[in-house]
Design a protein that fits this description.
This protein is mainly alpha-helical and about 100 residues long. The chain is about 80% helix and about 0% strand. The protein has helices at about 1-15, 20-25, 35-55, 55-60, 65-95. α3 (about 35-55) runs antiparallel to α5. The two termini are about 20 Å apart.
């Protein structure tokens, strides 16, 4: 159930048309129940969020480096969401056997 709660929160973040760094705080308590690769992806996405918000003016000017950081963060969050869903489904199937 903890992983499902994480998936729901992360899905809400990824599928929303607005993103605020505070949204990652909602998912942070559930990171303790994730696998090591998922923890690394979440930490990476959080770090990239901090980096691109530090250069907000450059992002507004559409400088490629900062824009690429934003794109990398978004891709990392989508990969994390898909990975978490796959692991959840595998665990659910194993528990039914």
């Amino acid at each position: 159930m903890k992983r499902l709660a994480f998936i729901i929160i992360l899905g809400s973040i990824v599928l929303s048309n607005t993103f605020s760094p505070q949204f990652l705080i909602w998912a942070a308590p559930f990171v303790a129940f994730l696998t090591i690769p998922e923890i690394l992806m979440f930490t990476g996405a959080s770090s990239l969020t901090w980096i691109y918000f530090s250069y907000w003016d450059d992002l507004i000017k559409l400088y490629p480096v900062v824009t690429n950081v934003l794109i990398a963060r978004n891709i990392l969050l989508v990969i994390l969401l898909v990975t978490s869903i796959v692991i959840f489904l595998i665990e659910t199937i194993k528990n039914r056997e």
